[in-house]
């Protein structure tokens, strides 16, 4: 495998959509554990997962007398539980139903004496089946999951570089399991109007907390195009934002989503994929900040 294929693997959605949908539900189970254990942070920053050298991790969480980390290890093909007293457990990442995954997950938490209970219902999806009843989603292609993770390994540092260019408040580069996307956000420092909510199977008050400040967000989602897409939006959307000419090859505004998009395939096939993605992030932020009159942006 050459360096480009390692860093920018092909990710045709049609080839791994069933795996993607199952994996999203598995990450929601693990993410809900982090939400239950971690101290609250603004904009729900205490709930995402993080890209690391093996997969996606919760990071260290308080769990009774010990600390706990849970990691999707896409190299060893395991979900690994590591307690700070040295006790570890692992679950196989293999074709299995969400219900089967959830039952074993809960059993491991009980064995490790983790003082947390989660609401066993998915969020941010148009149709949901309780985790403990879901025998529908049961696909898992380990190679496809590893390719997706390798793409995140490449994308996360580019997004981190972009984040570092802003001196104001900004979020970490983190993986939100609700929508199954890697994202980072910049803030103007001004409050935002109350978000209307309306996200499927997600209480409106969750969106009120997430969007209580003026924000420019960008990220990567493995959907929205034949190989997924990079996106960027502003909330509230300023007048003229969607009409801006970004000057970024392949980028366009999707009126249905209310976001600028840049297909993943366009990026990975570019002569300079890293440079194209960084140009998209910079141009879309500037479009929102300039049309929105952000302080310090001219």
Can you describe this structure in just a few lines?
This protein is an alpha+beta fold and 298 residues long. It has seven helices and twelve strands.
Describe the model.
With 298 residues, the chain is an alpha+beta fold. It has 7 helices and 12 strands. The protein has helices spanning 3-7, 13-37, 98-111, 142-164, 204-210, 264-268, 273-291; strands at residues 50-51, 55-57, 61-63, 66-73, 78-83, 88-92, 174-176, 181-191, 213-221, 229-235, 252-254, 259-263. Strands 1, 2, 3, 4, 5 and 6 form a 6-stranded antiparallel β-sheet that branches. A 6-stranded antiparallel β-sheet has the order 7-8-9-10-12-11. A hairpin with a 3-residue loop joins strand 1 and strand 2 (55-57). Helix 2 (13-37) packs parallel to helix 3 and helix 4 crosses helix 7 (273-291).
């Amino acid at each position: 495998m050459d360096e480009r294929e390692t860093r920018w693997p092909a990710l045709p959605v049609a080839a791994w959509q069933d795996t993607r949908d199952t994996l999203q539900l598995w990450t929601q189970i693990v993410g809900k554990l982090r939400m239950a254990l971690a101290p609250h942070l603004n904009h729900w920053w205490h709930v995402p997962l993080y890209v690391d050298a093996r997969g996606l991790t919760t990071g260290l969480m308080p769990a009774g007398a010990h600390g706990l980390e849970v990691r999707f290890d896409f190299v060893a093909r395991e979900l690994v539980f590591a307690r700070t007293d040295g006790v570890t457990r692992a679950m196989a990442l293999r074709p299995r139903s969400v219900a089967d995954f959830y039952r074993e997950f809960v059993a491991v938490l009980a064995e490790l004496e983790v003082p947390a209970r989660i609401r066993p219902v998915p969020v941010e999806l148009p149709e949901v089946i309780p985790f403990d009843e879901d025998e529908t989603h049961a696909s898992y292609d380990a190679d496809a999951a590893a390719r997706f993770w390798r793409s995140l390994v490449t994308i996360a540092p580019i997004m981190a570089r972009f984040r570092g260019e802003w001196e104001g408040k900004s979020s970490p580069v983190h993986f939100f399991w609700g929508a199954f996307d890697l994202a980072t956000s910049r803030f103007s420092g001004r409050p935002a109007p109350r978000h209307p909510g309306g996200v499927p199977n997600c209480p409106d008050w969750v969106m009120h907390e997430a969007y209580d400040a003026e924000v420019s967000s960008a990220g990567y989602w493995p959907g929205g195009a034949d190989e997924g897409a990079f996106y960027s939006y502003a909330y509230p959307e300023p007048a003229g934002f969607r009409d801006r000419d970004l000057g970024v090859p392949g980028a366009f505004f999707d009126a249905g989503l209310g976001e600028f998009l840049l297909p993943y395939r366009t990026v990975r096939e570019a002569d300079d994929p890293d440079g194209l993605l960084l140009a998209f992030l910079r141009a879309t932020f500037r479009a929102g900040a300039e049309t929105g009159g952000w302080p310090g942006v001219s």
